[in-house]
């Protein structure tokens, strides 16, 4: 049966909405049942300390402590969510994100991360048409793949979502449709640039799960799992929204060999500790159930 993982962001805020240190988060996720973690790099506590964030030694010490904790607890970091770039921001902010991204890859290498889910680039105003977005993203991720490759990391480009209005219209954004997603990865054409499929985003954008997974084939290396009502990116526990998880698990029972990574953000964050820990266990059990359904469908096919 496939391994189930969770983002560290699932347990990142306490009752007062203050950040929970990674070492404490790791222990609570282990106690909930998880053994595989997805490091949410944009939430790293170092990013809140301007002095330490710019010191490579600080990142290496932080990652070393987390790696030691993981080994003590029997945990492994196989995946991360990388920092995303937004070219609508000022040059200083864009440069800062690139510098922090490189720092985070140093930390990821120490943690043992081999795959980084990342959102497509947000292009500058005036370059929001499809052709410009494809060109900008292709150039950007070719450069990014070189950086990631130095750390042994594969980039997994994620399908996106955008604003939805009350009348049902959605604001256009690059990579919210399957055709953009597939053409971008093919255009980049780098060995370490593959796909991440977010089933919650697909539900929001009415993307057909069967068509998406079939199009990505062997280049699908990461799966993000959470639920929503189709109108908001709620990141709920599976079965609290409208996603057809039986269809999803049946489709996933093909050739996918990666982890099932839970990206539930509304279960435990901001809750009292005892309640949050129960919610995390529910997330884990829902993940195990889904992995079990994938196993069932896979073996049914082989009969």
Q: What is the 3D shape?
A: globular
CATH topology: TIM Barrel
Measured between the Cα atoms of the first and last residue, the distance is 17 Å
Write the H/E string, N to C. EHEHHEHEHEHEHHEHEH
CATH class identity: Alpha Beta
Q: In total, how many domains does the architecture comprise?
A: 1
> Could you give the count of β-strands?
8
* Low-confidence spans: none
The total of helices stands at 10
Q: Just name the CATH architecture.
A: Alpha-Beta Barrel
Structural class: alpha/beta
Supply Rg: 19 Å
Summarize the amount of helix as a percent range: 40-55%
> For the residues shown, what is the average pLDDT?
95
Report the β-strand fraction as a percent range.
5-15%
Please give the order of strands in the largest beta sheet. Answer: 1-2-3-4-5-6-7-8
Largest sheet: 8 strands, parallel, barrel
Going by CATH, what is the homologous superfamily? Answer: Divalent-metal-dependent TIM barrel enzymes
Brief summary:
With 303 residues, the protein is α/β, with parallel strands linked by helices.
Topology:
Blueprint: E1 4-7, H1 22-32, E2 36-40, H2 50-53, H3 56-73, E3 76-81, H4 91-111, E4 115-118, H5 130-150, E5 154-158, H6 178-188, E6 193-198, H7 199-204, H8 209-216, E7 220-225, H9 245-252, E8 260-262, H10 273-302
Parallel strand pairs: 1-2, 1-8, 2-3, 3-4, 4-5, 5-6, 6-7, 7-8
Helix pairs in contact: 1-3, 1-10, 3-4, 5-6, 9-10
